[in-house]
Each structure stands twice: as structure tokens, then as C-alpha cells.
Write a structure and sequence with these properties.
about 45% helix; Rossmann fold
Length: about 190
């Protein structure tokens, strides 16, 4: 399985989502983001950071892979989108106007792959309904999945442990971290 995680808008939680999914599934990650901590968190044996001139690696279909692209235009995104089984477009709801960049990203990427899932990242109460209203104005019927705001994601990166490992290691973490874990698992189940 190949997944693209991308949005033209920076700061939407693309890398955090990619890391969470990779650690839960043992998937490999390829990034074009020179500032991404992915190879430090996952290790060089599970992550590849591309230079500006590097081509996408040729990866056998049997290898499960996440393409984690930075929030800027890159021609390699088109190539990856054509190969991908699914495109995850993470957003953090701020306002309808702030979502315009995401609307533009969807309009661009759906030309190459319409198997899109919009991921409402760091969701707070009411964000899901507000985001759904904005997407309805554009007649988008792509699935909108929610991942609540939680400290589990930064803790996972800091400790270099999956969400599941954090839940398993401490009963107190289990109480607070089970919901985000379920939500990331639901994303993966949706496309499996």
C-alpha cells in the first residue's frame, strides 16, 4: 500500500500523522521536507529524506510506504499521487478563509488521484461540523476523518514509540491516549 500525506498549507500536522501511521504499521516513509524529523524518529532504515533533485525511489508494490511531502509545490507529488492507493489531506480547522489553501490542494491533487481522505487534525469541539460545512459548499464528498488534539503525538515522537506502545506502557496514558489511537487506526482501516 502506498499513501500520500500532503497539503499545500504548512503546519497542518502532515509529518506527525505520517509518523503515527508508520509507527503503528511498520510502514516506510519518504519525505521531501528537509526540516522533517522523520529519519531521526523512525531511523534511517525506515525513512528516506529526498534532496531537491532526487527522484522518487522505485519501490516494489509489496512495500508499504507513506510519502510525506512538505507544504509546498513539488513535481514529485504528482508522480507519488499517481502511484498511491490513497491521499490523506490533513487540515487544522481555523476558519473558512484559512481553508482556501486546502481547497486549492484538493483541486490540484484530485486531477491525479481521487481516492482522497480529508483528515481534520488537532480537532477541537465543533471543528468537524464547521469543516464539513465548508467542504459541502464546494460539493466535496470525500470522507472527513477526525483526529483529536492530544499530547500523545508529540510524546510519541519524543519517546520514539508508537501510540500503541505509549498506551500499553502506562494505564494513565491509556485513559488519555486511547481515543487518538483509535482515530489513527480508523484512518488506516478506512483504506485497508
Amino acid at each position: 500500500m502506498k499513501i500520500v500525506v500532503w497539503n499545500l498549507k504548512g503546519g497542518q500536522g502532515k509529518t506527525v500523522l505520517s509518523v503515527a501511521m508508520a509507527m503503528l504499521t511498520d510502514m516506510y516513509v519518504v519525505t521531501n521536507d528537509v526540516h522533517s524529523p522523520i529519519d531521526e524518529v523512525l531511523g534511517e532504515d525506515k525513512a528516506l529524506r529526498l534532496g531537491m533533485r532526487d527522484k522518487l525511489p522505485e519501490v516494489p508494490d509489496s512495500v508499504n510506504l507513506i510519502y510525506d511531502f512538505g507544504g509546498y509545490p513539488d513535481a514529485r507529488i504528482i508522480e507519488a499521487a499517481k502511484q498511491a492507493d490513497c491521499i490523506f489531506i490533513p487540515i487544522i480547522y481555523e476558519s473558512p478563509l484559512e481553508m482556501q489553501v486546502t481547497i486549492n490542494a484538493i483541486a490540484e491533487i484530485e486531477k491525479y488521484n481521487s481516492n482522497i481522505v480529508i483528515v481534520l487534525n488537532k480537532a477541537k469541539a465543533g471543528d468537524y461540523e464547521r469543516a464539513k460545512e465548508v467542504f459541502a459548499q464546494f460539493d466535496y464528498e470525500y470522507p472527513l476523518m477526525e483526529v483529536k488534539k492530544s499530547t500523545v503525538f508529540s510524546r510519541s515522537i519524543e519517546k520514539k514509540k508508537s501510540l500503541q506502545e505509549l498506551v500499553d506502557e502506562n494505564p494513565l496514558f491509556s485513559f488519555h491516549y486511547s481515543k487518538p489511537l483509535e482515530q489513527v487506526r480508523a484512518l488506516l482501516k478506512l483504506i485497508s
